[in-house]
DNA sequence: TTGATATATATCGATAGTCGTACTATGATA
DNA sequence: TATCATAGTACGACTATCGATATATATCAA
């Protein structure tokens, strides 16, 4: 799963939201690192609905503007949990290796990757 | 960064390796979850070399077969470290939300995402 | 009142990384 | 002698994301 899609699910794990709300929330949740593009967002929502990870949760008109709400399904929550554990695990493995590498570089800079 | 590319760097963090060796190592490192395709691997290696994250580290002929060796550069190690922290952080944020959501679902199943 | 910014969604061509498959070739094993 | 593991090359197809454009309302500043 790519990062934008991951953040769509993570955003909805917080509760029911509308498209633009997801964009703002994902930016905040990622400390500004993830700025979902509108094309990416709505394409992802369509796809995630087809996969059953997200469901439409009502349209509302607020201040003359349409808001399309979405919410996470239980399979969506499970998928996000699996994906989170996968990424945490990947990060741990890579960090372990980088730490060992750093130890080698300190000991012998030129043969660090030998 | 996508998962296959991440594992190419993670594999090389362990030391100099040849293409096929990276495929085997990535599979082991990921507990069998990541099986790099040859097309993906060599395309990634070409790209990572252009980006300066990886360098060719000599060709060898072993048992009549060509082996193309690669190693991680310092910028490559830094990129992997940044990417690992990014993924660990993303996973933490998502897991936090899932835990809060689970608490809500236990308290009130039908209004969990309201 | 004109322009800029924020909110909110729709749509679409281009891009990039990955996948899938086929191909060549050697050495080891059954 | 057939199959599997090793090792690399090549290329078309796929798909999520990007980047841009369009539409529309509300608010605020110049």
Write the layout of secondary structure elements.
The structure is a homodimer of 114-residue chains.
Chain A: H1 3-12, E1 17-18, H2 19-29, H3 38-50, E2 54-62, E3 65-72, H4 74-107
Antiparallel strand pairs in A: 1-3, 2-3
Chain A binds a DNA duplex (30 and 30 nucleotides) through residues 2-5, 18-21, 23-24, 37-44, 47, 62-68.
Task: Provide the descriptors you would attach to this structure in a database record.
homodimer; 114 residues; alpha+beta; 3-stranded antiparallel beta sheet; 4 helices; elongated; DNA-binding
Protein architecture, described:
Two copies of one chain form a homodimer. Helix content of chain A is 60%, strand content 17%. The longest helix of chain A is centred in the C-terminal third of the chain and has 34 residues, at 74-107. The first copy, chain A, is built from four helices and three strands. The model of chain A has no long low-confidence stretch (mean pLDDT 94). Chain A has a three-stranded antiparallel beta sheet with strand order 1-3-2. In chain A, α1 (3-12) packs across α2 (19-29). The two termini of chain A are 33 Å apart. In chain A, a hairpin with a 2-residue loop joins β2 (54-62) and β3 (65-72). The first copy, chain A, is α+β, with helices and mostly antiparallel strands and 114 residues long. Chain A binds chain B through residues 2-3, 6-7, 9-10, 12-16, 29-31, 33, 57, 71-72, 77, 80-81, 83-88, 90-95, 97-98, 100-101, 113-114, and chain B through 2-3, 6-7, 9-10, 12-16, 29-30, 33, 57, 71-72, 77, 80-81, 83-95, 97-98, 100-101, 113-114. The structure holds a DNA duplex (30 and 30 nucleotides).
